């Protein structure tokens, strides 16, 4: 059990965060974030 981590954070998100390396970036956004146009510029895979 992870005592200091909020239960609101999903196991999938914890896995992605654990697999991130130096220079990796993650975007937390709402439904109105222009992911399609920004994704091409950032070269970011959508999870």
Number of strands: 0
**Poorly predicted runs of 5 or more residues:** none
Question: Number of folding domains?
Answer: 1
- How far do the termini sit from each other? 25 Å
Radius of gyration: 13 Å
Structural class: mainly alpha
State the major sheet.
none
Protein name: L-fucose mutarotase
Catalytic activity: beta-D-ribopyranose = beta-D-ribofuranose; alpha-L-fucose = beta-L-fucose
InterPro entries: RbsD-like_sf (IPR023750), RbsD/FucU_mutarotase (IPR050443), RbsD_FucU (IPR007721)
Keywords: Isomerase
How does this structure look, described?
The chain is mainly α and about 45 residues long. It has one domain (about 1-45). The protein contains 2 helices and no strands. The chain has helices at about 10-20, 35-40. The model has no long low-confidence stretch (mean pLDDT about 80).
Output the keywords:
isomerase; mainly alpha; 47 residues; RbsD/FucU_mutarotase; 2 helices
Short précis:
The chain has 2 helices and no strands. It has 47 residues and is mostly helical.
